[in-house]
Design brief:
Blueprint (H helix, E strand, L loop, with lengths): L3 H10 L4 E10 L9 E5 L4 E3 L4 H17 L3 E6 L13 E4 L7 E9 L4 E5 L3 H12 L3 E5 L22 E4 L6 H10 L4 E4 L3 H11 L3 H6 E2 L11 H17 L14 E3 L6 E3 L6 E4 L2 E4 L3 H11 L1
Parallel strand pairs: 4-5, 7-8, 7-9, 9-10, 10-11
Antiparallel strand pairs: 1-2, 1-6, 2-3, 4-6, 12-13, 14-15
Helix pairs in contact: 3-7
Length: 303
């Protein structure tokens, strides 16, 4: 990867959430400059540069919080003492005692992949739905294994539905029950079955679903707008998926767990534990630090 933008595109393609960090203001003395960028992954890894070791802990902690909340934040990293920065309503202010003067303002933007809609079938409704979802900017994957073109036979999907936001079964028969079951087993929150009310009920009755799983299956599928044509039905299905994402919190991508934190025994800062966090094993314990400087001071104090 040559640039932060290239790396961001790769992560979105791989459906991995991340935070894009940009330094928007830097007050000397500081190693970062306005315009510096970095990507922070869900495990706390920082790729790029938005400040030295002391600033990185503050950035990492705020970025993981932004990723969990799904909201952007303006982070102001200030040293001890009075620093004259312009007022920034709504900014998250952190006093970092490790900074050797200077201050930073960093804008943190969480990035999540687009909703992934898996469509089973080669029917006109399936074709129209794929086009509508692409217009919405959703990622679409067609599961040909759910339907055998040119025949009335269908088979279950060749792969699991892990990571899908929604699965729509538009095969008009065949292995519908098996496909619905596979989607539910994969934890998909929205499963749409294109079928009449009678046939849809018959398919679900055969599955003997518990109430929680039954609530995830929509059949007849789509919001009731009087749709008749394949394109109109596709719009009604897409609208139902949108409502699930925007109103009901249908997951687009897994949100990371809250970061594990501890306290730096030297400076007292709260430290987010990640693969790059400085640490030291001593006396059967692991001590975590905000930067290598605090780790060195800890070692010197015990010498």
């Amino acid at each position: 990867m040559n640039t932060i933008a290239d790396r961001a595109k790769q992560l979105l393609y791989e459906r991995k959430p991340f935070v894009h960090a940009t330094v928007v203001r830097a007050q000397p003395p500081t190693s970062a400059r306005a315009g510096d960028e970095a990507i922070l992954l869900a495990d706390g890894t920082i790729e790029g540069f938005v400040g030295g070791e002391c600033a990185q802990n503050s950035v990492r902690k705020a970025a993981l919080g932004a990723l969990q909340a799904g909201e952007s934040v303006l982070l102001r990293v200030l040293p001890d003492g009075d620093v004259h920065f312009p007022d920034a309503p709504g900014a998250c202010v952190v006093v970092n005692p490790c900074l050797s003067g200077g201050a930073l303002e960093i804008f943190l933007t969480p990035q999540f992949p687009a909703p992934l809609v898996r469509i089973c079938g080669a029917t006109p409704i399936a074709e129209s739905l794929a086009k509508v979802c692409e217009v919405l900017g959703y990622e679409v994957r067609r599961d040909g294994g759910c339907d055998i073109p040119g025949s009335h036979r269908s088979s279950p999907p060749d792969e699991t539905f892990d990571g899908a936001t929604a699965v729509v079964v538009a095969t008009h028969g065949g292995a519908e029950a098996e496909t619905v079951r596979a989607a539910l087993d994969a934890g998909v929150g929205y499963v749409g079955l294109v079928a009449s009310r009678v046939r849809g009920a018959s398919v679900l009755d055969a599955l003997d679903l518990d109430p929680a799983d039954r609530a995830k299956v929509h059949t007849p599928v789509g919001i009731p707008i009087g749709a008749k044509t394949p394109a109109e039905i596709a719009v009604s299905i897409a609208a139902e998926v949108i409502a699930g994402v925007r109103r009901e919190g249908l997951p687009v991508a897994p949100r990371p767990d809250a970061p594990t934190t501890t306290v730096d025994p030297v400076c007292g800062m709260t430290v987010s534990i990640g693969p790059d966090t400085p640490h030291l094993r001593s006396g059967g314990q692991i001590h975590w630090f905000c930067c290598p400087g605090c780790r060195s001071r800890f070692v010197a104090a015990r010498a």
